[in-house]
From TrEMBL, chains A, B:
UniProt-listed InterPro entries: Coprogen_oxidase_aer (IPR001260), Coprogen_oxidase_aer_sf (IPR036406)
Entry-linked Pfam families: Coprogen_oxidas (PF01218)
GO (cellular component) term, any one: cytoplasm
Pathway(s) this gene product operates in, as recorded in its UniProt entry: Porphyrin-containing compound metabolism; protoporphyrin-IX biosynthesis; protoporphyrinogen-IX from coproporphyrinogen-III (O2 route): step 1/1
Sequence similarity: Belongs to the aerobic coproporphyrinogen-III oxidase family.
Subunit description: Homodimer.
NCBIfam families in alphabetical order: PRK05330.1
Name of the protein in its database record: coproporphyrinogen oxidase
Keyword flag Oxidoreductase: yes
GO BP: protoporphyrinogen IX biosynthetic process
EC number(s) recorded for this UniProt protein: 1.3.3.3
Keywords: Heme biosynthesis, Oxidoreductase, Porphyrin biosynthesis
The keyword Chaperone belongs to this UniProt entry's keyword annotation: no
Length: 297, 297
């Protein structure tokens, strides 16, 4: 089955899917340049490079269900592990996913077909002063509805108020053409990136939205592009500056414990992880977000 | 509210709760003795000792909801981290837990009161040749039903068929007075201790049972005691022997990656973890099962 077979919104789907790949390529280029720069505690380590591999969604019925690529950088000078997944998948929702989505999306109860494309990245830096970061944007389609979703949030092991301020100011500026949108998405992120069983936020927040369908696909796609394009200016300067800052074993321990919280959030609460595991996407790709090393002392 | 306030099965509840504490004390004594013995790669490390702290269940309504103790050994010669939680909690099930349980237990839909007592332990050894292990047994009570549940399973990072054989043979012998019980519980463990998204078992199995109510509380309590009493003979000789075996960095990496799978199972699939986090029990106590250090390379 061709993902565009039914023709509905074929052009929009193709444009969204292509844009997620372009964004991935720009981020890869920027991070590989970052790897060439100063990095405290990285003497003797070569600049990291991304390796790409194909990923497949495994549909229960065995038919073609789409897939994507996973770009993974391991053991770099600045980046200890960073995964960027881009995938375009389609098929029929499993019973559990269908039931969960039918509560939000009219029509899904009657027709379980879906198509989804998106980019998802998580960066776990080596230097504990460099903040970990997450970005995810996607387009979702069912025969009765389409919508965009996504967000980005900063997860420093050691918090610097000026870094948090820069990250948020950049996102606020990127969303300025949409009045009220930054405030709404920041509040949504504060609510979403929260670890209930720990009674705390997983990081210092960011922006988040889901179910975005204003009725104007072009306008909503522009909003999603603005979020994706804000990612590098929001995070990269922080990474460049903090990568040169010396760190010690106590900093490292704080980082590993903080990563434990990150793993807890992703495995217990994250909507994308749950959907990915439940819908049969490549587990290695879904779980590339997990930290290279984490501690529960 | 006194956990025995309604008087129903007060003597049985008290005996079960007391027995879980006795089992905990015996295991602590045995592991602290194990810590005095040979341990490869532990030069200069002092024998570990358990530290006990009180844990509380936090009921939404703020009333006394029971609690327990968490015994934690960190950074020992043989044991890198081992937690043994014993708790006796009571109150009313939250809406989600009530709905989930009502499907299995008639009467829960009408009356959400519950009482539960149990022991739960996980051991993450330092030496990658020593198998990690888990034990959990509990009594659960609602106004309309009581039952026992639990199990134990072996989680070696590096598998030795003779260790697996000893573990299973000891459990089989312990359950010999209950014809068919070992085979039934082994099959249940194979089904339960499985990581669907990885398509693999989390370890080399063991035994598992839930909803045990034969109508004869004394007989079922005896079965649960037999499982608890089999734990030390099943695992301790393996730990003693393997702790003396030299290990290297490659062994350590295998261990840390295997621990990542263990964390995934507990955070994504484990019934006890989900119940604990959803019912407001101390998150540190519920998550003491997480490995001290884990790797997702």
């Amino acid at each position: 089955m061709d993902p565009m077979a039914d023709g509905a919104m074929a052009e929009q789907k193709a444009r969204a899917a292509a844009w997620f790949e372009q964004l991935r390529d720009r981020i890869i280029a920027a991070v590989e340049t970052l790897e060439e720069g100063p990095a405290a505690g990285a003497d003797g380590i070569a600049p990291g490079r991304f390796a790409l591999r194909r990923t497949r969604r495994h549909a229960p019925e065995g038919e073609d269900a789409g897939g994507g690529t996973m770009a993974l950088l391991r053991g770099g000078r600045v980046v200890e592990k960073m995964g960027i997944g881009v995938s375009t998948v389609h098929g029929r929702l499993g019973a559990a996913a269908q039931a969960a989505m039918a509560a939000r999306v009219p029509g899904v109860a009657e027709d379980a077909r879906f198509w989804a494309s998106g980019i998802s990245l998580v960066c776990h830096p080596r230097n504990p002063h460099v903040p970990a970061v997450h970005l995810n944007t996607r387009m979702f389609w069912t025969p009765s509805a389409w919508w965009f979703g996504g967000g980005t949030d900063l997860n420093p092991a050691i918090e610097y108020p000026e870094d948090t301020a820069h990250f948020h100011a950049t996102l606020r500026a990127a969303l300025a053409p949409w009045p009220g949108e930054y405030d709404r998405q920041k509040a949504w992120a504060d609510d979403y990136f929260f670890i209930p069983h720990r009674g705390r936020a997983r990081g210092v927040g960011g922006i988040f939205l889901d179910d975005r369908n204003s009725g104007d696909w072009e306008a909503d796609f522009a909003l999603i592009r603005a979020i994706g394009e804000a990612f590098l200016p929001a995070w990269l300067p922080l990474a460049q500056a903090r990568a040169a800052q010396p760190w010690d074993e106590a900093d490292r321990t704080r980082q590993l414990v903080h990563r434990g919280l990150y793993a807890e959030f992703n495995l217990v609460w994250d909507r994308g992880t749950k959907f990915g595991l439940a819908s049969g996407h490549d587990a290695e790709a879904v779980l590339m977000s997990l930290p290279p090393l984490a501690m529960w002392p």
